[in-house]
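Hey,
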Amino acid sequence: MTDFDIKNDSLAEGGRRRIEWAEREMPVLRLIKERFQKEKPLKGIRMSACLHVTAETANLMKTLQAGGADVVLVASNPLSTQDDVAAALVIHDEIPVHAIKGEDNATYYKHIEAALAHKPQITMDDGADLVSTIHKSHRDLIPNIYGGTEETTTGVIRLRAMAADKALMFPVIAVNDAMTKHFFDNRYGTGQSTLDGIIRATNILIAGKVFVVCGYGWCGRGLAQKARGMGADVIVTEVDSLKALEAVMDGFRVMPIKEAAKAGDIFCTVTGDLNVIDKEHFESMKDGAIVANSGHFNCEINIPALESLSVGKKLVRPFVEQYELKDGRKIHILAEGRLINLSAAEGHPASVMDMSFANQALSAEYMVKNHLTLEKKVYSVPEEMDREIAALKLKAMGVRCDELTEEQKKYLNSWESGT
């Protein structure tokens, strides 16, 4: 196999060990892989995946391969690739990978092109870059595409906008909408791994700091909860009144970002939107403020605006750029504003990605079986699939729960029974 682009194939052995370590914590995906090996539900299907190239993703790729898929993997973020994992997939599993940690923008899109040269029948996205590029410049591929899956909040927002404009030309399953994805991956995974990335990059003490969480979706909920657990004074900023109210009822201070900018020591955006931290906010931040992002794209932080306010910048630690403002204040941007949990750390723990990637694998299978009857729109993961994954996870954890008796089922389905 010669069609790949990785940093160094000599890293493969270390990557193999990392993949095997993650696999120990992914029992649900392991069960699906065992079934896929027997049934081959993806036999002959060409799949192009644009995902974070991590040990957990590697186990998903091996599951799809076990199901018979002809799969190619490229990075969904220039800083999230684990080079040893990329090498292991190429050398040990013969899965073409086009991903190098730190790749520039031109290389990133060259890799996107490599994924599309595979002429996929199923796309698997983490941010909708494959789907977006297909619709912009590779529309000739559309007639042969069954559909796709999307892993992120950001990507689902983009795809729903396309569907609303009648621009989406094939069905996509929003894996991000699965309860077993956003309840666990976004809340527990993002909460823990984001703090992990911030701490690895800065080695600062979280306790006693004013920690500003921009956005109170599932990722924001998890991050706020974990930051408070480590002793931070947490402020939440929101644009949604219901989410803002929930944050207040959860015991957090809520205020506009313009006010929070003056108070915060550490800021982290988790919204999926543009310029959440903007020029006016940088103008009022404390000297030494630390700014990070754990949303999918670095556009959440207006870094060009910060550069316009600065007289210089320098790298003071790996993943920490210090911007000196004209008045002498210094503001620190982590990992170029890209996903801090995957840039400076290792991303989500394998045990939560187990459920997310179980959703991906089963959604791909569902798309292959049902693509002829699906419309050109964004679908949620079928509820029965979501519940199946939850049940498998509980079984793997050795946890049992109750079942309704026939009497209870009858009561819940009856309008005649009263108090």
